[in-house]
Amino acid sequence: MDTKKIVHGAWSSRLAFILAATGSAVGLGNIWKFxxxxxxxxxxxxxxxxxxxxxxxxxxxxxxxxxLGRRSQRNPIETxxxxxxxxxxxxNWHYLGWMGVVAGLLILSYYSVIAGWASAYVLKAFTGxxxxxxxxxIRQLFDEFIASPIQLIFWHSAFMLAxxxxxxxxxxxxxxKAVQYLMPTLFILLFLLVAYAMTTDSYFQxxxxxxxPDFSKxxxxxxxxxxxxxxxxxxxxMGAIMVYGSYLPKNISIAKTTLLIAGADTVVAxxxxxxxxxxxxxxxxxxxxxxxxxxxxxxxxFGAMTGGWLMGISFFVMLVxxxxxxxxxxxxxxxxxxxxxxxxxxxKACLWTGLSTWLLGIGSIFSFNVWANxxxxxxxxxxxxxxxxxxxxxxxxxxxxxxxxxxxxSRQSSEQELNMPTVQSYQIWKILISYVAxxxxxxxxxxxxxxx
Length: 452
Description:
Blueprint (H helix, E strand, L loop, with lengths): L13 H12 L2 H13 L3 H29 L3 H12 L7 H32 L8 H12 L2 H19 L2 H29 L4 H9 L8 H14 L6 H7 L7 H29 L15 H7 L3 H34 L4 H21 L14 H28 L2 H8 L4 H26 L4
Helix pairs in contact: 1-8, 1-11, 1-12, 1-14, 2-10, 2-12, 3-4, 3-9, 3-10, 3-11, 3-12, 3-16, 3-18, 4-5, 5-7, 5-14, 5-15, 5-16, 7-14, 7-15, 8-12, 8-14, 9-12, 10-18, 11-14, 13-14, 14-15, 15-16, 16-18
């Protein structure tokens, strides 16, 4: 393997990596998306399928992606170039690294827009905009907000600036310091919301909905949705986990650490459900309200409940923190590549990647207002970017990582890098990464492109 001197950071401890990788995984998908897709798919039975998918698909691929990053100790693009050379494989495998970096930037361009909405709603909650408002007034508030490109650009810009100010400080002073404060804060706010949910009359109704399975409500579409969400929620296939793995010291167990990260990510999603569904049922709202559950439904509850002012502020602050810990991981692969391969200073790399991503985000903003009628392949710019990344690039990336780690990389290399405690644990991972995970991801991919 190439041993040229490189400019590359490293986490100061195992805990730092766990916090950072958990922050990457914990995002809008856990707190915004998981509750509403659980509501749409009948509750408990869906949760069981989701947990199985995390265990059998998400964790093996996460172990593989972390392993690839640490073995090369480079950015995703160079990682695939070096490991392809080491394995004597087709050079086209290096495009996997490129796809991950590009996917991360594309996702961040519209992710920042939604995170901007959450940021704006912190202020709306603080100023009492939800107080005694009915469903029509809350919907009007949301509609007027997204119809204003000036407001959306302001909040998108503020969120992107916060992201780049963290990333520009590097691995230890930026990424590591940020997650050391942001992740504990997120958990404190989440437990605060769960504690409030426990005081409502509908707490046990919410738990029953979330954890008591009714398999009659489970469809084949529900199974595929659970499989896809388990894959996407762990930030797989977008270069983030690979570049974070590249900063991981050699003496830290990848498998044990990955299990902790996946566990923490899953706990956050479940806690979000425990916090949200009792509030939904207590206010006679519908759990299957879809994507509008947070921005157009929960504010009704916050405006009517005792202590709703504080709960509303806490909830949207938590949402912004979750988005921020993910956004810094989305842009880091591109920044790392510019620093390590193009001799950019970190400041210059952050400036160019930040500006490019911010500019692309303007297209998503306009798709909600001035370009609302502009369609590409029957989708708005926002919808097209979401479909291109979530439904195409990430499944292809995850599938490719599984194939490369399971079939292309030598057994000696993966055994050496993973250094699992027993031969049996390595063999279980090898079966999952070689057969189970790629088959499942391929099945999801065929579904989302309409073949199945």
